[in-house]
Amino acid sequence: MDFWQLSSEEWSAVWLSLRVACVATLATLPVAVALGYGLARRQFWGKSLLETVLNLPLVLPPVVVGYLLLVEFGRNGWLGSRLVDWFGIRFVFDWKGAVAASAVMAFPLVVRSIRVAMATIDPRLEEAARTLGCGRFETFLRITVPLARRGIIAGAVLGFARSIGEFGATIMIAGSIPGQTQTIPLKIYSLLNSPGGAARASRLVVVSVLIAVVALAASEWFERRGRFGVAIAGRATP
User: Fold this and answer.
1) Residues 6+ apart with CB under 8 A from 67
2) Which pLDDT tens digit goes with each residue over 14-65?
3) Hey, is 210 helix, strand or coil?
Protein backbone atom coordinates (compact mmCIF):
# COMPACT_ATOMS: atom_id res chain seq x y z
CA MET A 1 0.00 0.00 0.00
CA ASP A 2 1.29 3.47 -0.94
CA PHE A 3 2.33 5.66 1.95
CA TRP A 4 -0.15 8.40 1.06
CA GLN A 5 -3.05 6.08 0.23
CA LEU A 6 -5.25 6.36 3.30
CA SER A 7 -7.97 3.81 3.89
CA SER A 8 -11.61 4.81 4.16
CA GLU A 9 -11.45 4.51 7.97
CA GLU A 10 -8.37 6.72 8.10
CA TRP A 11 -10.00 9.36 5.91
CA SER A 12 -13.05 9.16 8.13
CA ALA A 13 -10.87 9.88 11.16
CA VAL A 14 -9.31 12.87 9.40
CA TRP A 15 -12.63 14.42 8.35
CA LEU A 16 -14.17 13.74 11.75
CA SER A 17 -11.24 15.43 13.50
CA LEU A 18 -11.58 18.48 11.26
CA ARG A 19 -15.32 18.57 11.85
CA VAL A 20 -14.98 18.26 15.61
CA ALA A 21 -12.22 20.88 15.80
CA CYS A 22 -14.11 23.39 13.65
CA VAL A 23 -17.38 23.01 15.55
CA ALA A 24 -15.66 23.17 18.94
CA THR A 25 -13.70 26.29 17.96
CA LEU A 26 -16.66 28.14 16.45
CA ALA A 27 -18.93 27.23 19.35
CA THR A 28 -16.55 28.41 22.07
CA LEU A 29 -14.96 31.46 20.42
CA PRO A 30 -17.79 33.97 21.13
CA VAL A 31 -17.94 32.88 24.78
CA ALA A 32 -14.14 33.02 25.03
CA VAL A 33 -14.09 36.57 23.64
CA ALA A 34 -16.72 37.71 26.17
CA LEU A 35 -14.95 36.00 29.07
CA GLY A 36 -11.54 37.25 27.98
CA TYR A 37 -12.86 40.80 27.93
CA GLY A 38 -14.55 40.43 31.30
CA LEU A 39 -11.47 38.97 32.97
CA ALA A 40 -9.18 41.60 31.47
CA ARG A 41 -11.31 44.69 32.15
CA ARG A 42 -13.69 43.94 34.98
CA GLN A 43 -13.35 43.35 38.71
CA PHE A 44 -16.14 41.34 40.28
CA TRP A 45 -16.82 39.03 43.19
CA GLY A 46 -15.73 35.47 42.47
CA LYS A 47 -13.28 36.41 39.72
CA SER A 48 -10.49 34.30 41.22
CA LEU A 49 -12.84 31.33 41.57
CA LEU A 50 -13.95 31.70 37.94
CA GLU A 51 -10.33 31.81 36.76
CA THR A 52 -9.57 28.68 38.77
CA VAL A 53 -12.50 26.78 37.28
CA LEU A 54 -11.62 27.91 33.74
CA ASN A 55 -8.02 26.74 34.10
CA LEU A 56 -8.80 23.38 35.69
CA PRO A 57 -8.72 21.48 32.35
CA LEU A 58 -5.09 22.59 31.96
CA VAL A 59 -3.97 20.86 35.16
CA LEU A 60 -6.41 17.97 35.52
CA PRO A 61 -5.68 14.70 33.72
CA PRO A 62 -7.76 14.64 30.51
CA VAL A 63 -9.39 11.37 31.54
CA VAL A 64 -10.67 13.08 34.69
CA VAL A 65 -12.23 15.83 32.59
CA GLY A 66 -13.69 13.15 30.34
CA TYR A 67 -15.12 11.30 33.33
CA LEU A 68 -16.78 14.48 34.63
CA LEU A 69 -18.26 15.12 31.19
CA LEU A 70 -19.46 11.52 31.04
CA VAL A 71 -21.19 11.89 34.40
CA GLU A 72 -22.81 15.21 33.48
CA PHE A 73 -23.81 14.36 29.88
CA GLY A 74 -24.65 10.71 30.56
CA ARG A 75 -28.20 9.40 30.51
CA ASN A 76 -28.43 9.78 34.27
CA GLY A 77 -26.68 13.13 34.42
CA TRP A 78 -28.61 16.31 35.17
CA LEU A 79 -27.78 17.91 31.83
CA GLY A 80 -27.57 14.77 29.73
CA SER A 81 -30.97 13.44 30.76
CA ARG A 82 -32.67 16.73 29.92
CA LEU A 83 -30.96 17.05 26.56
CA VAL A 84 -32.13 13.57 25.61
CA ASP A 85 -35.67 13.92 26.96
CA TRP A 86 -36.35 17.44 25.72
CA PHE A 87 -34.36 17.68 22.48
CA GLY A 88 -33.27 14.13 21.65
CA ILE A 89 -29.61 15.21 21.74
CA ARG A 90 -27.12 12.58 22.87
CA PHE A 91 -23.47 13.26 23.68
CA VAL A 92 -22.20 9.94 25.04
CA PHE A 93 -20.69 7.71 22.32
CA ASP A 94 -21.53 10.35 19.72
CA TRP A 95 -19.43 12.84 17.75
CA LYS A 96 -21.05 15.65 19.73
CA GLY A 97 -19.37 14.21 22.82
CA ALA A 98 -16.03 14.58 21.05
CA VAL A 99 -16.93 18.22 20.36
CA ALA A 100 -17.75 18.78 24.04
CA ALA A 101 -14.48 17.19 25.15
CA SER A 102 -12.40 19.18 22.66
CA ALA A 103 -14.17 22.42 23.54
CA VAL A 104 -13.63 22.00 27.29
CA MET A 105 -9.98 21.04 26.95
CA ALA A 106 -9.17 23.87 24.50
CA PHE A 107 -11.28 26.60 26.12
CA PRO A 108 -8.71 27.75 28.73
CA LEU A 109 -6.06 28.27 26.04
CA VAL A 110 -8.45 30.34 23.92
CA VAL A 111 -9.58 32.50 26.85
CA ARG A 112 -6.01 33.04 28.07
CA SER A 113 -4.81 34.25 24.66
CA ILE A 114 -7.78 36.60 24.22
CA ARG A 115 -7.51 37.91 27.77
CA VAL A 116 -3.86 38.88 27.28
CA ALA A 117 -4.73 40.65 24.03
CA MET A 118 -7.62 42.53 25.66
CA ALA A 119 -5.46 43.59 28.60
CA THR A 120 -2.89 45.26 26.31
CA ILE A 121 -5.46 47.61 24.72
CA ASP A 122 -5.25 51.20 25.94
CA PRO A 123 -8.56 51.95 27.74
CA ARG A 124 -8.34 55.55 26.58
CA LEU A 125 -9.12 54.45 23.03
CA GLU A 126 -12.39 52.94 24.22
CA GLU A 127 -13.13 55.99 26.33
CA ALA A 128 -12.58 58.23 23.29
CA ALA A 129 -15.06 56.17 21.29
CA ARG A 130 -17.59 56.48 24.09
CA THR A 131 -17.21 60.27 24.17
CA LEU A 132 -17.87 60.36 20.41
CA GLY A 133 -21.26 58.73 20.90
CA CYS A 134 -20.53 55.01 20.62
CA GLY A 135 -22.38 52.77 23.02
CA ARG A 136 -20.63 50.18 25.15
CA PHE A 137 -21.44 47.29 22.82
CA GLU A 138 -20.62 49.29 19.67
CA THR A 139 -17.29 50.30 21.19
CA PHE A 140 -16.57 46.67 21.98
CA LEU A 141 -17.30 45.57 18.40
CA ARG A 142 -15.64 48.46 16.55
CA ILE A 143 -12.67 49.24 18.80
CA THR A 144 -11.89 46.45 21.25
CA VAL A 145 -12.35 43.41 19.02
CA PRO A 146 -10.35 44.78 16.05
CA LEU A 147 -7.51 45.84 18.33
CA ALA A 148 -7.48 42.39 19.96
CA ARG A 149 -7.75 40.50 16.67
CA ARG A 150 -4.24 39.05 16.98
CA GLY A 151 -5.07 37.43 20.30
CA ILE A 152 -8.45 36.26 19.04
CA ILE A 153 -6.92 34.66 15.94
CA ALA A 154 -4.13 33.12 17.99
CA GLY A 155 -6.64 31.78 20.49
CA ALA A 156 -8.79 30.29 17.74
CA VAL A 157 -5.76 28.58 16.19
CA LEU A 158 -4.65 27.24 19.58
CA GLY A 159 -8.15 25.95 20.26
CA PHE A 160 -8.36 24.31 16.84
CA ALA A 161 -4.95 22.65 17.21
CA ARG A 162 -5.74 21.48 20.73
CA SER A 163 -9.03 20.02 19.51
CA ILE A 164 -7.27 18.11 16.73
CA GLY A 165 -4.95 16.51 19.29
CA GLU A 166 -7.49 15.79 22.01
CA PHE A 167 -7.42 12.17 23.20
CA GLY A 168 -8.05 11.43 26.89
CA ALA A 169 -11.33 13.28 27.47
CA THR A 170 -12.66 12.25 24.07
CA ILE A 171 -12.19 8.54 24.59
CA MET A 172 -13.98 8.75 27.95
CA ILE A 173 -17.18 10.41 26.72
CA ALA A 174 -17.26 9.52 23.01
CA GLY A 175 -15.38 6.24 22.89
CA SER A 176 -13.44 5.09 19.85
CA ILE A 177 -16.08 3.97 17.35
CA PRO A 178 -14.69 3.76 13.78
CA GLY A 179 -16.51 6.12 11.46
CA GLN A 180 -18.46 7.75 14.30
CA THR A 181 -16.24 9.00 17.10
CA GLN A 182 -12.74 7.81 16.17
CA THR A 183 -10.67 10.95 15.59
CA ILE A 184 -7.05 11.04 14.40
CA PRO A 185 -5.44 10.52 17.85
CA LEU A 186 -7.81 7.64 18.63
CA LYS A 187 -7.17 6.07 15.24
CA ILE A 188 -3.40 6.35 15.70
CA TYR A 189 -3.66 4.69 19.10
CA SER A 190 -5.81 1.92 17.62
CA LEU A 191 -3.38 1.32 14.75
CA LEU A 192 -0.35 1.19 17.04
CA ASN A 193 -2.06 -1.56 19.03
CA SER A 194 -2.75 -3.67 15.95
CA PRO A 195 -0.26 -5.88 14.03
CA GLY A 196 1.47 -3.96 11.24
CA GLY A 197 -0.29 -0.74 12.13
CA ALA A 198 2.81 1.39 12.71
CA ALA A 199 3.21 2.33 9.04
CA ARG A 200 -0.45 3.30 8.73
CA ALA A 201 -0.22 5.28 11.95
CA SER A 202 2.77 7.20 10.60
CA ARG A 203 0.63 8.41 7.69
CA LEU A 204 -1.89 9.91 10.09
CA VAL A 205 0.95 11.50 12.06
CA VAL A 206 2.10 13.23 8.87
CA VAL A 207 -1.49 14.33 8.16
CA SER A 208 -1.74 15.79 11.67
CA VAL A 209 1.46 17.78 11.14
CA LEU A 210 0.18 19.07 7.80
CA ILE A 211 -3.12 20.18 9.37
CA ALA A 212 -1.21 22.05 12.08
CA VAL A 213 1.00 23.77 9.48
CA VAL A 214 -2.03 24.79 7.40
CA ALA A 215 -3.78 26.16 10.50
CA LEU A 216 -0.74 28.28 11.42
CA ALA A 217 -0.37 29.49 7.84
CA ALA A 218 -4.05 30.47 7.74
CA SER A 219 -3.63 32.35 10.99
CA GLU A 220 -0.69 34.29 9.57
CA TRP A 221 -2.64 35.05 6.38
CA PHE A 222 -5.62 36.42 8.29
CA GLU A 223 -3.32 38.50 10.46
CA ARG A 224 -1.54 40.01 7.45
CA ARG A 225 -4.87 40.64 5.74
CA GLY A 226 -6.12 42.39 8.87
CA ARG A 227 -3.05 44.64 9.05
CA PHE A 228 -3.41 45.43 5.32
CA GLY A 229 -7.07 46.31 5.76
CA VAL A 230 -6.32 48.61 8.67
CA ALA A 231 -3.55 50.34 6.70
CA ILE A 232 -5.83 50.91 3.69
CA ALA A 233 -8.58 52.26 5.93
CA GLY A 234 -6.11 54.61 7.61
CA ARG A 235 -4.92 56.00 4.26
CA ALA A 236 -8.50 56.46 3.07
CA THR A 237 -9.47 58.44 6.17
CA PRO A 238 -9.22 62.18 5.49
Assistant:
1) 172
2) 999 999 999 999 999 999 999 999 898 888 888 889 889 899 998 999 999 9
3) helix
Rounded distance between C-alpha atoms, residue 99 and residue 96, angstroms: 5
Residue pLDDT, tens place only, 184-222? 999 999 988 888 788 888 888 988 889 888 888 877 776
The Cα angle at residue 82 between residues 81 and 84, in degrees rounded to 5: 70
DSSP 46: T
Task: State pTM to two decimals.
Answer: 0.85
Q: Compute how many other C-beta atoms are within 10 angstroms of the C-beta atom of residue 7.
A: 12
CA distance 178 to 165: 17
Helices 62-73/47-59 angle, 10° precision: 110
Asked if residue 191 lies in contact with residue 121, where contact means CB atoms within 8 angstroms, the answer is no
